[in-house]
Write a structure and sequence with these properties.
Chain lengths: 245, 245
DNA sequence: GCTGGAATATGTCCGACTAATAATCGAGTC
DNA sequence: GACTCGATTATTAGTCGGACATATTCCAGC
């Protein structure tokens, strides 16, 4: 009974895609907006028109728009229609928005910005983790590191272990805001890792960098942890940059 | 242009509250969830029941729930009902979620986490601003600073000028992700400023700290800007802490 | 230029139907 | 008799269509 997508001619993201209908619409519209298909200030078709064009009910369409509005992508006003908001009002760190940003060819400048933010946050997180980590935290990091070493970043399991490692560091900080933020960035960055893998035959072996971070955190050395993480992020950025620009 | 927060909240957030209806419901439910009135894992009343209890249509209620779901607060599944998600899945940095978190008595631990994040991000932003600021950026900062000096933080205009100053710094970094993030945190922090003002008769004069930051950015001295901003954030945290804990 | 009404698109409401699935119950087996 | 597994049922979110309300925009008329 899996969805077979019989006759959706691409233009109509109708039911059967697995997602709930309004979720699928939100995904479609969100991707289109983030990718620049609609420019800020543009007015979307009227609800009745658009929903008919998509072959969905107005209710479903409206719920999708509510989602976009909740993420700051659009704003609806009576009689004026729903318009795309300026990029400055988008919740760029929202996991969904980030995912939509990476559905197409991502903007290189935006990736640079994300890495810059990551280069700010992650070393600081590593420092806090070194100061506050428990034995359990260390154990999680260690197993993730082992898994990562075994599977390499070329596999899904390996990338998953990579995320686990970084998440364990965040968890050790005990700071919810930091965790949420960095998890979003981390997910986005992991999208880019796939780009690296596909276009570069010789990615750097990331294990030694990670081991340095782990050792510093285990030793409780905040300065060393911060520095090691800074190095790791810098190298990752360099790899990504050379595989795109 | 932007008038808001004009709320008359009775027991029933029914029509006529000024906000759009589903927005009012989302606000009410969101605040309740974030404040812990509903614990993670709790199941909300069924849609028909709850919407009737609120005297609103099921459609309006559903659109409100979509907003909450978009922010990671709840998840709906057929037959199982809609349940509050674990805190780790909340988009804590979403502007609305932050606002909801500060409608009631905010959690001190959470405020500490926010300041910790701010203490990481803002100094780094100040450094970038010092390296990249244009003359226009400096002009905006300067006028904001003057306004701030004149009105003091006790007035709305003064707090607004404070935000303008920090936003100008962010703008100068040219990093969208950084701007969005720090704007959210900044807004949240400005809520706490009100707490400071109401419970402390002798708040520190914040102008000298800000001037130090400005001078360093104007001079293009990244290290000094970072250090000055670190100091500013630390002092602000100390003030807030002493006025609450 | 100002005022007031008509046009129009979003906002809200209603009631019915669909679809998915948790919960229940029963057939079959050990 | 207890248990596993599979079909049935009941419940709840999801979707639909249409109606009416409300708020603006826009334009006509003064």
């Amino acid at each position: 009974m899996q969805d077979e997508a019989q006759d959706n001619e691409g233009e109509k993201p109708k039911r059967g895609t697995g997602r709930r209908l309004h979720g699928a619409i939100a995904h479609k519209l969100g991707s289109a907006i983030v990718s620049g298909e609609y420019a800020p200030g543009d007015k979307l078709e009227a609800e009745v028109t658009f929903s008919e064009a998509l072959n969905v009910s107005r209710s479903a369409y409206r719920e999708a728009v509510q989602v976009l509005a909740a993420k700051g992508l659009v704003e609806s006003r009576t009689k004026a229609g729903t318009r795309v908001l300026p990029r400055s009002r988008w919740n760029l760190l929202d996991p969904d928005v980030l995912a939509w940003a990476f559905t197409g060819e991502p903007d290189i400048e935006f990736i640079r910005n994300l890495f810059e933010l990551r280069a700010i946050v992650e070393p600081a997180a590593a420092r806090l983790a070194a100061e506050r980590r428990t034995k359990d935290d260390l154990k999680v990091m260690k197993t993730a590191l082992a898994e990562m070493r075994q599977k390499t970043l070329a596999t899904d399991a390996g990338r998953s272990a990579d995320r686990d490692f970084h998440n364990a560091i965040l968890q050790a900080t005990g700071n919810d805001a930091l965790i949420v933020l960095s998890a979003s960035i981390g997910a986005a960055v992991s999208w880019t890792t796939q780009f690296k893998q596909r276009s570069r035959t010789l990615p750097r072996n990331p294990i030694p960098d990670h081991v340095r971070v782990y050792d510093a955190i285990a030793a409780g050395d905040g300065d060393a942890a911060s520095e090691a993480m800074r190095l790791l992020v810098d190298l990752a950025l360099e790899d990504t940059r050379s595989s795109m620009g």
